[in-house]
Every structure is written in structure tokens, then in C-alpha cells.
Amino acid sequence: MLQVRFAGNNHCTNGSKLAIMRRICSIILPEFSTSRMWKALCLLAVAFAEMLAAVVAADDSGSPRQDFSAQAARLAIVRGLDVVTKAAARYPQNQSCFSCHHQTLPLLAAVTARDHDIAIEQALFPEQTAFTHASFHDDLDDLRQGRGIGGRAMTVGYGLWALRLADAPADETTEAMVTYLLKMQHDDGHWSRQTGRPPLEDSNVACTTLAIYGVQKYAAESQKPVAEAAIEKAARWLQETKIESQDDKCFRLWSLWLLAAPADEITK
Description:
Structural class: mainly alpha
């Protein structure tokens, strides 16, 4: 049984973390051959950032890798970031509702790059955080009632991910978003997408993992007993459900990390 807790997995070695990065990239990258939407650029920027961390680090023997140009990787990442951050900045000028592909994924790309000492557009964070928060704050009553949210649990999960990436504090809006997720969980423990829109909305494994991630971070004290029980149910469902797609594999891997699975189970 996986250990369930509100923090992430802090016990893996750097080598294990690198193995996870490589595995995530190997799962995500094949999706780009079938997707021509610009959303793939956001995922590509994330993959490039994770790849940079792997190729510039020491290999398992402790020797630096010499078969890849870190400078070339950095240049590719910078160019990709420029595309996605500009697209994210333009989105609020034309739309009023939160979007996982224009808020969450650009923030994820930027945070990952920043963590590896790559310069980013700092204005991205307050702008996208404010837009995301306002979008959900306008729906407080519906969130608290577990109704009326386009994209349902998937949208709320991506929204909490965006706020978490920006280090947004917990408040009545995030509490309402958690309430919505707790109300929308199925009896067997999973959360379901509303529609099939690959590559972002095509997997109940992804939806369940995102729900876990948001609930772990933003459940209020009064919600934690119910939230912990919900995560345990989700963990059981994730262990038992059939993995069918690349998306399932990627998010199943992430869920193992979130649920503090042993390192050998994560990397196998």
C-alpha cells in the first residue's frame, strides 16, 4: 500500500529523481508526433527543461556526460519559453476563463526553467496567478455546490496546479476548489474528465492525479480528514486501474511520486 501524505516524496536520491525525469520525457515526447496544436509547445518546453537537468548532471557512475551540448539544450529551451510565455500573456486579452494550456503549462515551463537557472519573464507569475484566481473566484457558489464548472474536475485540477506553481496562498477560492473536487470524486476513488481532448484532457488517470495534487496542497484544516480519505481511495484506484495510453503512463508515474511510493517502484 502506498503511503499517503500531504507532502511530496522527499526521500528519493538525486539519481532516482534523474531517472524519473528521463522516464517522463520518454513517455511525453511520442505524443508530439500526433499533435499539431500549439499546446504541444508548452509540453515540449517542459520536456526540454527536464532533459537539461538530466544531460548536464552526472551519470550513474558519477562522471559528467560528454555526448550532449548543454548550451544547445539551453538555447532550445529559451526559444520554446519565448513562444509559450508570449502566448500566455496574450490569452487574457481575448478570453475571460481559465485555460489549462495557456495558464498551467506556461507556468510549469517557466518554473522548471527557473529552477535550472534559466532566465524567465517574471511578470508571467503575477499576471497568470491573478487571472487564474479571478476565473475561479467568480464561480465560488458553483464550486461549493459541485456543479457548473466547464471541464469539471480536470479544469479544477489544472487550476490548482497553476496556483501551486505560482506559490499562491490558500484562501476561500482554493478551499472552494478543493470542496468541488471532493464532491466530484467517484465512489471507486477516481476523478473523471468531462470530454476527450488529447493531449491534455484524455485520461482519467491524469484527472485523478491532478486532483490528488491539488487536494494535497490546498485542503483546509477542516477538510483534511475527508481529503486524506479521498486520496487513499484514489491511491487504491490508481493501483488497480488499467493503464492504456501514454498519458496514463505519465500521470501514473507522477501519482507514484505524489503518494510517496518507494523509489524502486517509481523507476521500474
